[in-house]
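Purpose: get a first structural picture of the assembly so the mutagenesis plan has something to point at.
Setup: two entries, given in the order below. No constraints added.
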Amino acid sequence: MINDILQQLEATPLAVAISGESSLFPWIETLHVIAIVTVFGSILTIDLRLLGRSSYRESAARMMRELLPWTWVAFALAVVTGSAMFISKATTYGMNGYFQLKMAALVGAGINMAIFHLGAYRTIDRWDGGVAFPVGARVAGGASLILWAMVLCFGRWIGFTLSPF
Amino acid sequence: MKGLGPLLADSQLAQLLRDTSWAIPAVQCVHIAAIAVLFVSSLVGQLRLAGLMATDVEPAPIGRWLAPRVRWPFAALLITGSLMIISEPERTLTNSVFWVKMGLVVCALALSELLFRAAAKPGEASQVARIGALTVLVLWLGAIVCGRWIAYLY
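Result (structure tokens, whole complex):
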């Protein structure tokens, strides 16, 4: 069932064009790299602040307002370019263990973000700029750092193992 | 350079890197993470120096914040980059995209260091420094693009 969908994806003209001999795939991958370094770097900057390290400004809330628009635009670009690379070899990537781990880590990062926004973030006006951030904020920062590092590493590993392991 | 390649490729370290299946992917992960820190820190810091972001923060503390966030990742990039060269010298040393990348990196780093000094002076950055700040970002972007293309143009 899933395999049928992946095979159909792979057969679309767009997927055939990307997997072809042109320089389309390298350019898409280049954009993907620019997108992921922006996503990872901006999230890491916020995470380290949540963990209590000093940054270019004191307020974590202001940092988030300043940096997260960059994160989201870059994330959208990463999803578009990532999907384009995925469909070019949909059946291979779909079965790839590192690809599956990467998607799981992405879901984990999303859940962690949701917990933070429904939890510690709601009272950020009270604790932002204080001496120590609440446990909820520090745990969210640490978990985010680990999960996004996993996304990055699993992603890089996909390129080295284009077969199931 | 052509003589250096085989010498590096035959070294024990190069053989170890090639024989350990996870070594190069792991080195590349550290490389990309270091690029992320350097690039986003530069994005924030240089856009601030250009007067386009976080303008309520003074340039001097921004410069002091940015400098170690360029220098430390750069050190990590030198080490991980060298390991990649040693494992597969022919992929880089005879590759013109690699040398274009090195040129861009040297320019970006030198311009960054000049701007750290400019930021330390009181007041806003000069018009020239603002243009320099935006140029640094273009140079780093160019280096990232060339870095990815090393794998395709050799």
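DSSP finds eight helices and no strands in chain A.
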